[in-house]
Amino acid sequence: MRTFRHIVEARGISAAAQRMDTTHSTVSRQLKQLEQALGARLLHRDTHGLSPTAAGERYYAACVDILERVDAAADVLADEQRQPSGRLRVSLPLAIGVLELAQWLPSFQARYPRIDLDLSCSDQFVNLASDGFDAALRIDGPLADASMVARTLAIAEVVLVAAPAYLARHGVPRQPDELAGHALLAYAGTEPSPEWLLSAKDGTVSRVPLRAPRLRSDAITSLHAAALAGLGIAAFTRPTVQAELARGQLVHVLPNHALPPRRYYALLPSTRHLAPKVQAFVTHMAEHYRKA
Fold first, then answer.
1. Which of 67, 90, 121, 255 is a plausible cystine mate for 97, CB 3.0–4.6 Å?
2. What is the DSSP letter of 179?
3. How far apart are CA 212 and CA 232, in angstroms?
């Protein structure tokens, strides 16, 4: 069809071959095969060269219409590769989807204005295929399904924090053993830890039991709210409380002791090629955490 269009517009086989950067014999052979397949003569020769017959004129008009639509479809796909677009459904834990949202979403939307995000914020693990998600972000925990693969985005520091008002009322702990006299806020998620392990710079590890915390919750958001309200000391990944620490709403407690870090990762389908919109999201989040 493209060959026939070039012959009509160039009014000759040699000129068409030149346009197509091929040989006269190749173009002539394709024309002959096309006429045989259609069972109709498409071109005749006049004083100005080759021109379409009545059947050729009708076929030429159809060719132009079809080829332009094919080219337009190809342009759309190529543009999507250059600028990812479409609806992207992502499962996020509450820490990322609620508490950290303001840190990464504005820049993502500015960078990829043609991607429409559909977020589901929950600390429950999901199956990408059966639950209809393109990707999921998680903080530690096991893979929910062998059909998924995990791509690490960041290794995040875990910090103990408390509100200035709480520390003003109850004092600032200087050593891990002093935490026993404080109100502790504990996470009771999928894999709740019975203790905090605090490592000093000299390698000494202190164990802080969480058997009877002042508050236990399976939602990071409620622990975050409780810490801001001055109800006790809680442990969060640094990205979760980075903004509050910078504004002075929370204070880093026992900064010379480290809790085991936690891994932020993306759950993706175990396929060789990711859709551009999925790749764009994962890349953006990885860059975000590297800068954090």
1. 121
2. G
3. 13
**Per-residue pLDDT averaged across 136-150, rounded?**
73
**Residue 177 pLDDT greater than 70, yes or no:** yes
Predicted confidence at residue 234, as pLDDT, reads 96
H-helix segments, the chain: 2-10, 13-20, 24-38, 54-82, 94, 101-111, 128-131, 164-170, 220-228, 238-247, 276-291
Q: Which helix (H) or strand (E) holds 152?
A: strand 148-162
Is residue 184 within 8 A of residue 176, CB to CB? The reply is: no
CA 111 to centroid of chain Cα atoms: 12
For residue 143, what are its two tokens? 């893979």
Cα dihedral 245/251/254/259 (nearest 10): -40
Give the predicted TM-score (pTM) of the model: 0.69
**Residue 79 vs residue 264, higher pLDDT:** 264
SS3 213: coil
| Residue 64 to residues 31, 67, 236, Cα–Cα distance (Å) | 16, 5, 62
Going along the chain from its start, the domains and CATH numbers come out as 2-82 (1.10.10.10), 84-292 (3.40.190.290)
43 forms bridges with which residues in the sheet? 52
Task: Look at the chain and count its residues.
Answer: 292
Examine the pLDDT at 145 and tell me if it is beyond 70.
no
